[in-house]
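Page 42, continued from yesterday. The earlier attempt failed because a stray header line got pasted into the input along with the sequence. Redoing it now with the clean sequence only.
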Amino acid sequence: MANHILTILSKPRRNDENRTPYQGVVKHDWVPTGRIDFATHLNGNASEEADQPNEFKLLLEERRVVESIAGNENLEIQWRLATLREAKAVVTHYHKYMSENSLFKNVLEETITVPSSKEGSIAISRVQKKKAEQRLSTPEVNKSTSASEDQQTVGPKVEKQDQE
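This time it went through. Structure tokens are written below.
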């Protein structure tokens, strides 16, 4: 008889097969935490592929609080793919941070080193080099008496006559 009772208890009921387990009551629905990450497929050794271009997916972390059947509050965390609006917000914040901290490198502002015959080497910007080349190639450039050394006037050569 005891064996028969054990068999009855261990057999699943037909109603239980279609039931899902009790998940609890959602106290706070999914809320973004602000943390982001990226996901991609790697075909082997990650250290070899670290410098290779690849496609990345932006992931966002979310959390929610669920109350269990016993009354305990459980924190659930999930990572999901970002929406276009969320990806744009991430890029906007990144660009703002880069510009506020002067971390963008402008091609025209890059410093190049030009060897000097007497003093070793001098570092000048490409803009300064281009201006110097233009000054040397343009014969009609005269320095104005009222302008500083950096400011120059361009135009026909005019000679001053002594006025008495």
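Notes: Residues 21-43+52-104 form one domain.
Reminder to self: strip header lines before submitting.
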